[in-house]
């Protein structure tokens, strides 16, 4: 559904707000990016400083030839690890063989542990729809979950949002809020803590509207830098990251903590390239876990 007049007014009001952040920085040996809310690039270290003058800093290294930099400096207190769609419906073997999603588990658990150590909060962002969501959902979104129309009227790989799943898969409604299939994948759920936050979404993006609870929470929390992990890299993860980028949050993709079932056309590599060279930065679990305070 397109943004309402109220949402458009809210967006314009948000954009028009005067920034209150003041950063004192030696710009003689740094290149500034942005307006009042700036990044700084240090040519000698080849790092981008996203810490905005914070006393606490974490230096995350990266360099794979396409990024043209040696990583980023972030403020742990204003950073959030966003884990997208690591749900039973997408990852559990009773639904499908998501080998790339399973492959992310080991590095993701290491990244989660590192975040706990340095004080980076976690957010779990998942499909969790309601009947109201289905009523106002754009046809393009529902079509994406009914790709097998030539096979038993859509009851194939994508059974359809809100449709009743087979008994061997729980017999619940597909990706409905509160169901087991929409819950966080069991091996990850045991690592959640009370400090984590959790949000539902009803689009590929979890930040498409300023009225969404996750959008509101992010603005109120003061978080500036978002680390991204989860599935699928070229779909829900990229959709959320793209909106985060457009709204002004720093975006860092943890490459080996993101997976996709799209196995053609180098989908994951294209996403990595576009994020690394345009929308933000790309690192990996090894570099992130080796990050030191700076």
From TrEMBL:
Domain Isochorismatase-like, by residue range, is 79-264
A Pfam family annotated for this UniProt entry: Isochorismatase
- What are the entry keywords? Hydrolase
Please give the InterPro entries that the UniProt record associates with this protein: Isochorismatase-like_dom (IPR000868), Isochorismatase-like_hydrls (IPR050272), Isochorismatase-like_sf (IPR036380)
SUPFAM superfamilies noted in UniProt:
Isochorismatase-like hydrolases
An example of a GO molecular function for this protein is:
hydrolase activity
Q: Which family does it belong to?
A: Belongs to the isochorismatase family.
Name of the protein in its database record: Isochorismatase-like domain-containing protein
Q: Which organism is it from?
A: Friedmanniomyces simplex
């Amino acid at each position: 559904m397109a943004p309402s007049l109220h949402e458009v007014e809210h967006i314009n009001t948000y954009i028009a707000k005067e920034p209150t952040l003041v950063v004192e920085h030696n710009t003689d040996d740094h290149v500034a990016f942005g307006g009042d809310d700036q990044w700084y690039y240090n040519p000698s270290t080849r790092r981008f400083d996203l810490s905005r003058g914070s006393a606490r800093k974490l230096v995350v290294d990266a360099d794979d030839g396409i990024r043209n930099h040696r990583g980023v400096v972030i403020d742990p207190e204003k950073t959030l690890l966003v884990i997208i769609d690591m749900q039973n419906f997408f990852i559990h073997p009773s639904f499908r063989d998501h080998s790339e999603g399973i492959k992310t588990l080991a590095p993701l658990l290491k990244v989660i542990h590192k975040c706990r150590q340095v004080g980076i909060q976690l957010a779990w962002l998942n499909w969790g729809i309601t009947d109201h969501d289905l009523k106002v959902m754009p046809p393009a979104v529902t079509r994406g979950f009914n790709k097998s129309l030539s096979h038993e009227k859509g009851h194939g790989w994508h059974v359809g949002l809100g449709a009743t799943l087979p008994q061997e898969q729980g017999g619940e409604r597909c990706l409905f809020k509160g169901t087991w299939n929409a819950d966080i994948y069991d091996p990850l759920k045991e690592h959640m803590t009370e400090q984590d936050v959790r949000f539902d979404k009803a689009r590929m993006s979890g930040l498409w509207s300023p009225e969404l609870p996750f959008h509101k929470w992010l603005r109120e929390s003061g978080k500036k830098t978002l680390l991204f992990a989860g599935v699928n890299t070229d779909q829900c993860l990229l959709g959320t990251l793209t909106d985060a980028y457009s709204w002004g949050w720093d975006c860092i993709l943890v490459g080996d903590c993101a997976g996709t079932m799209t196995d053609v056309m180098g989908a994951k590599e294209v996403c990595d390239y576009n994020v690394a060279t345009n929308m933000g930065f790309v690192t990996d679990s090894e570099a992130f876990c080796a990050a030191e305070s700076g």
